[in-house]
Write a structure and sequence with these properties.
Helix content: over 70%
Keywords: Cytokinin signaling pathway, Two-component regulatory system
Distance between the termini: 36 Å
Protein name: Histidine-containing phosphotransfer protein
Shape: elongated
Radius of gyration: 17 Å
Number of helices: 4
Subcellular location: Cytoplasm, Cytosol; Nucleus
Structural class: mainly alpha
Number of domains: 2
Main location: cytoplasm
GO biological process, one term: phosphorelay signal transduction system
């Protein structure tokens, strides 16, 4: 019974985040792979965890650039890394 309620909450959350544009068809693809069993066990969770770790590191690095002298080349590189992380 609790699992059904949690699944409902998760579906509501995913629908809401998708509507905000924070998730896209790539997430839906990962989710469908997990649900239909076409991926190795734990692969989807690993992909999501890697994304979160990489995005978090990149955002922290960008935050460190909040200094009087900013290296815009480094900012550009970090933004490109974040874009790659989001699109892959």
């Amino acid at each position: 019974m609790a699992a059904v309620a949690l699944r409902g909450q998760l579906n509501t959350l995913v629908t809401s985040i998708f509507a905000m544009g924070m998730l896209d068809e790539y997430f839906q693809y990962l989710q469908s792979m997990d649900e239909d069993g076409s991926s190795a066990q734990g692969l989807v969770a690993e992909v999501i965890n890697l994304f979160i770790a990489n995005a978090n590191r990149i955002l922290n690095d960008i935050g460190l650039l909040n200094q009087p002298v900013i290296d815009f080349n480094k900012v550009d590189d970090l933004v490109h890394q974040l874009e790659w992380c989001i699109s892959s």
